[in-house]
DNA sequence: AATAATATTTAAGCATACTTAAATTTTAAT
DNA sequence: ATTAAAATTTAAGTATGCTTAAATATTATT
């Protein structure tokens, strides 16, 4: 399958996960930076290949086969991120940028080799789950966003959901990293801002960031 | 530059190295598995982009710019081979197969990271030289093929020039590896077969193999 | 030097993945 | 329920990178 097709089914899969964002052609088009007309064309072509179900004017739905392909691409993406992060010590932003291309030129064989080398990790360096070779994700996810946490509790960072360089730079500078511990000292004005303590520093985060940082409460 | 273009200039560069194989469209076409007509089309298009000089019915010649691009692709290819060979312990055949695709989706930044990780190696696991970031190859190559060696002398393997799985499998099984030492015990019938000793085994190689195994004499 | 064989180029056509502009349908607002 | 706004689809067209078949030029053979 071509790069265009792989990016397309991946975009449908990701948009489909969060029902706020839907999978109508226009949204996929926006995500991929192509015209709406191109998205409609591609939708028809993918329906022909049995990768999606397409009904005029309706949201796009992946078939089982389509979802499998999407998960394969996502698996390769996240394995690359984990591999480059570990071996070459690249930043969260850099690994994502490279993985976006490498994901399409990686044999299943190589993906498995990388996975094995890393000890078959279940999560990538952003905390995103890595599908296994059969396209299954073992997501027992009971994490919440930082914006929903309670004052006076401690949490472990479980996921940094973004692909923005500025955000990742900020995280790196302030020790906001997958697996690190933070303490929520105050929630301001109906959770529009969150004050946390980390590494004996106090930092104040606004909603833009607290909504993409996922955490698990420490019992 | 597209994958098609990168493979094309790389093929011209490689065919141009050994004047037995020339760089006329037909030979490039054969190497890439495309029609002669497609090769002519591409030649015109590359001339337009100033990557080659094209004159009807003549051999194709890379411009300085074209050669730079070819060397960049070759650099990435060989860095990938070295990186995968080291980290994932893949075979010579496997690393080549993967590198053939990865070479086109690797930023200069990532290539430099890989190079640095490996200690800026000058040769890949086949013994092929790796161009540096400026596209320079430091090839002070005084190696000869095994077919030209003399009885009773010892040599170090410096290069395995092939992309054939059977050959590499044979090499792996018999300790024929970049950097390993061999002793030439006999040359048969005008060097059509060569008998060598390696790891206390005696093996007899015919010309198909002795012409793609390069060695340096041990003084 | 003429002829046959081989290689290259031209021509016409196709699939993919895009574009913009116009037509149509859906959705939202009055 | 009409109407206006927004999204989707259709239509027409483009660039890339291929194909096969025919025309043309080069190279090899006699
Ligand atoms: Mn990513
Ligand atoms: Mn991608
Ligand atoms: Mn190789
Ligand atoms: Mn290649």
From TrEMBL, chains A, B:
Keywords annotated in UniProt: DNA-binding, Transcription, Transcription regulation
Keyword Acyltransferase: no
Gene3D superfamilies, alphabetized: 2.30.30.90, Winged helix-like DNA-binding domain superfamily/Winged helix DNA-binding domain
Residue ranges of every copy of the HTH dtxR-type domain listed in the record: 1-63
SMART domains found in the cross-reference section: HTH_DTXR
SUPFAM superfamilies: Iron-dependent repressor protein, dimerization domain, Winged helix' DNA-binding domain
InterPro entries xrefs: DtxR_MntR_Metal-Reg, Fe-transptr_FeoA-like, Fe_dep_repressor, Fe_dep_repressor_sf, FeoA_core_dom, HTH_DTXR, Iron_dep_repressor, WH-like_DNA-bd_sf
Keyword Transcription regulation tagged: yes
Protein family per UniProt: Belongs to the DtxR/MntR family.
Name this protein carries in UniProt: Transcriptional regulator MntR
Organism: Oceanihabitans sediminis
């Amino acid at each position: 399958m071509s790069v265009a097709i792989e990016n397309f089914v991946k975009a449908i899969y990701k948009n489909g996960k969060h029902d706020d964002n839907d999978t109508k052609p226009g949204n996929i088009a926006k995500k991929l930076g192509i015209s709406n007309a191109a998205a409609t064309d591609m939708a028809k072509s993918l329906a022909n290949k049995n990768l999606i179900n397409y009904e005029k004017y309706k949201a796009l739905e992946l078939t089982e086969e389509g979802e499998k392909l999407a998960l394969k691409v996502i698996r390769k993406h996240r394995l690359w991120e984990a591999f480059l992060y570990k071996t070459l010590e690249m930043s969260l932003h850099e690994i994502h940028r490279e993985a976006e291309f490498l994901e399409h030129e990686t044999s299943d064989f190589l993906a498995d080799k990388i996975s094995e080398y890393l000890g078959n990790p279940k999560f990538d360096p952003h905390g995103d789950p890595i599908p296994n070779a059969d396209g299954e994700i073992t997501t027992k996810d009971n994490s919440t966003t930082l914006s929903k946490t309670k004052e006076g509790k401690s949490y472990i960072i479980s996921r940094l959901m973004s692909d923005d360089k500025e955000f990742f730079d900020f995280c790196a500078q302030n020790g906001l990293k997958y697996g690190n511990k933070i303490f929520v000292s105050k929630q301001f004005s109906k959770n529009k801002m969150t004050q946390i303590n980390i590494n004996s520093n106090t930092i104040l985060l606004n909603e833009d960031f607290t909504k993409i940082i996922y955490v698990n409460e420490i019992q």
